[in-house]
Amino acid sequence: MTEVPKTVCDRLQGLQRTAQAHPDAELLAGFAERALSPDERDGILEHLAVCGDCREVVTLALPAGAVSAPIGIETETDQSLGIPAKAGNGWIGSPALRWAALATGVAVAASVLLLHPKNLNQAMLTSEKQPATTIAQPSEHSQIAASTDGISNKAMPDEARPEPGQLPDKLNPRQASARSPRPSHGMLAANNARKPPAMGKLPTAPGTRAQAGYRAPANGSTSETFATSAESNLMAQNDAPAIEKAKQVPLAIQAQASTEQRASDAGAASDAPPLKSLDTAGLSLNPMSADQMSARAGAWSITEGRLQRSVDSGQSWQSALHTDRPLLCYAAHDEDVWAGGQAGILYHSSNGGLTWMQVRPWINSQQLSSDITHLELRDNLGNGKPRPPQEIIVSTSNNEIWTSIDGGTTWDKK
Amino acid sequence: MPKPAQSGQEADFAAPLYERSGAAAYGVSEEQFAAILSEILRKYLPRNSKTGSERVSLQEADFCASLRLEELALARACAAGNEQAWKDFVSRYRQKMHGMALHITHDGAHAAELADSLFADLYGVSPRAEGRKSKLVFYTGRGSLEGWLRTVMAQEFVNRYRKQKRTVSLEEQTEDGVQFAADPSEPDPTADQRLEAATDEALAELSPEDRFTLASYYLDGRTLAEIARTLGLHESSVSRRLDRLATGLRKRILAGLRGLGMSHAQAAEALETDVRDIQLNLRKRLTQDSGPKTFPDSRKVPAQDPSDESND
Q1: Would you say the C-alpha torsion A130, A136, A141, A145 has a positive or negative sign?
Q2: Per-residue pLDDT, B117
Q3: Bigger pLDDT: A155 or B148?
Q4: B246/A59 touch (CB, cutoff 8 Å), yes or no
């Protein structure tokens, strides 16, 4: 840190004695919450520059950290404070670490080339067979669409095509990314585009999240198209919930799971709706680890203000989400899990609690700040068809009802 | 409860806001709520908030719409003595207040004392038995009620320590090294009028935010993280800003000194001398001005015996 000349500190110190009257608490609070006009903010800063007591008050009144996030992942708190996500900031800002990261990436790629040349060759062949296909998902969402309808399945290599009712053998993510959904899957892409914050990625563990589009055979209309997210990333080692952020993640090499392991996984997760959906659709996605699959089969509860998850039918419980304020309620449907608590804190996981994103309901310059007392997930399309829940209904302690049909991106208030 | 608004137009303007606030559930009438909004407008937009039949301006409407209306209604209803409002307030903020107090004091006993004291103020307990006068009547909805409570609590904490500082014993002063402090009125023998003038001019050219950043870092010993959270910046941004300010101030002061008749070499020498002594003098100055540390904090620069520093 560059030192300032001593005279600067002396003169600053001299100015401190000129502070007389102090701003009201509401203005200091408004300053801390950035609720003041620019003129008011400048006025407060002018006072703070010469008043040590008020600087002390402002610092003491700062709220405690919002969320405990795993190392290496920027917290939502940073975003709430308007912190720009710059690639050059943080640990990656060190040139040595940047070179180390690059070297690690090269080493991993080389290892995969040596160990799995067959898969890579197949992926390349698949891409060559379908020169007109593209990756359907917006790159910033770091999601890869994998079409599972009949046409796309025909284009899949035999090795990667699943048998109906069975979990897929294996699927190289490059193969998944090489196939694009048909036009009827446009709704899927549009649906995802409406909720970019949920399309998270994991900065620490390079992964590929495959998005599978289904079209129900009942009537074949486009309105029946829905999306189910199936993660196939390398998060097996990372059970801790992460805070999702809209950051691009490169395609990753996918770990393979043995047939025996998948069989046991399927048995352990036989009551997991997402997996059942995958089976029904014959989706050739997978290699999930046992941890990943059991994570989706878990039960949820709120205990002492904390969201807990059990993956063994309630015999043991693990904390699934750490927040600075007590959680009061939750709602879960398949992998879609919401948790709400005091002062309007609301978290959403679209992958069974592997990663979490804080949602801040906001409408007409009013933010939801009351305690959230009840959450309900409702399939806004109904008809009894198996589809992911679309609408989240939030009830607050002051009898407000907030709803969102797009995963928390936009809100209505009743 | 303030008197009802006189202007029918203000009441019309307040109607949708009244509905949004949910004040009706706490027994606050629309007229009373309009009066509260008028009072807030008079406080923050005095030029545009004239009494009489003048129509509510767009700016005022936007201002009112940006207020935390629901929390404002709750706070004012509590201040007016509404039972349901107080019940809701207790259920929503009582536990939070203890958490806030613990965050501020880092001590369980002091936290309970601080939170209970503020709670009594919020309820409006008067030691003179003059009836309730709740502190919540001062909340105007500019920020969140929770943020306001934190700030009021922090102010109370600072005020208490300020009072305690006045009654600190001589033994404690000795332990804190106050006996080594020089008379604050004693002029700094190294002070140069031209240097001070150039420095004042350079500081005056800075934005209030820059001066705040400098004071927080160099006078208060705040960490980059604390400053960053206060300003809504990233730590690295604050670090870069401090570097930029130090470099810029040096250049401006040098230019100012040359403008006041110093040669480049003389100006540079004056600043170099200061830089060598920066840590020593800053500690000394802080010790002199603040006496016993108001808020003991291991993160801050510890007060040291000047005799030790002279050996550096």
Answers
A1: negative
A2: 87
A3: B148
A4: no
Residue B209 to residue A3, Cβ atoms within 8 A = no
CA angle, residues A267, A273, A277, in degrees to nearest 5: 95
The DSSP bridge partners found for residue A116 are: none
Greater model confidence, A398 or A278? A398
- Chain-chain contact of B151 with A28 (C-beta, under 8 angstroms): yes
ipTM > 0.90 (yes/no): no
Q: What is the mean pLDDT of chain B?
A: 76
In angstroms, what separates the C-alpha of B128 from chain A's closest C-alpha?
25
Handedness of CA A34, A36, A38, A44 (dihedral sign): negative
Residue B214's closest CA among A375, A5, A259? A5
What does each C-alpha distance from A9 to A15, B200, B302 come to in angstroms? 10, 11, 17
* All residues at 6 or more sequence positions from A407 whose CB lies less than 8 Å from its CB, including other chains: A194, A195, A198, A348, A350, A392
**In degrees to the nearest 10, what's the CA dihedral of B251, B257, B263, B269?**
-70
Query: What's the rounded Cα separation, in Å, for the pair A414 and A403?
Result: 8
Give the mean pLDDT of chain A. Answer: 59
Q: Which pair of tokens denotes residue B132?
A: 């309730």
Edge to edge, what strands does the sheet with A143-147 contain? A143-147, A208-215, A225-232
Measured CA to CA, the distance from residue A9 to residue B277 in angstroms comes to: 11
Q: Pick the residue of A1, A2, A8 with the most B CBs within 10 A to test the interface with B by mutation.
A: A8
A345: exposed, middle or buried (Cβ count in 10 Å: 0-12, 13-18, 19+): buried
Chain B nearest-CA distance from A177, in A, is 35
Q: What is the pLDDT of residues B67-115, one digit of tens each?
A: 889 999 999 999 888 889 999 999 999 888 988 888 888 888 888 888 8
Cross-chain CB nearest to B148 (options A29, A62, A86): A29
Angle, alpha carbons B59-B65-B66 (nearest 5°): 90
Chain A positions in Cβ-Cβ contact with residue B75 (cut-off 8 Å) = none
Provide the β-strand partners of residue A358.
A347
Quote the CA–CA distance of B264 and A109 in Å, as a whole number.
58
Give the per-residue SS3 of chain B.
CCCCCCCHHHHHHHHHHHHHHCHHHHCCCHHHHHHHHHHHHHHHCCCCCCCCCCCCCHHHHHHHHCCCHHHHHHHHHHHCCCHHHHHHHHHHHHHHHHHHHHHHHCCHHHHHHHHHHHHHHHHCCCCCCCCCCCHHHHCCCCCCHHHHHHHHHHHHHHHHHHHHHHCCCHHHHHHCCHHHCCCCCCCCCCCCHHHHHHHHHHHHCCCHHHHHHHHHHHHCCCCHHHHHHHHCCCHHHHHHHHHHHHHHHHHHHHHHHHHCCCCHHHHHHHHHHHHHCHHHHHHHHHHHHHCCCCCCCCCCCCCCCHHHHCCC
CB-CB under 8 Å, A26 with B195: no
Tell me: the pLDDT tens digits for B236-274?
899 999 999 988 988 888 888 888 888 888 888 877 765
**What is the residue whose two structure tokens read 């800063």?**
A45
Which chain A residue's Cα is nearest to B215? A49
The closest of A294, A262, A255 to A279, measured between CA atoms, is A262
**pLDDT tens digit string along A19-63?**
568 888 888 988 888 888 888 888 899 889 888 889 989 988 887
| A26/B196 CB distance under 8 A | no
Q: What confidence tens digit (pLDDT) does each residue in A149-193 have?
A: 333 333 344 443 444 444 334 334 333 333 333 333 333 333 333
Which single residue is written with the structure tokens 């006068």?
B133
CA angle A375, A378, A383 (to 5 degrees): 165
Indicate if the pLDDT at residue A126 is higher than 70. Answer: no
Inter-residue contact A232 to A173 (CB < 8 Å): yes
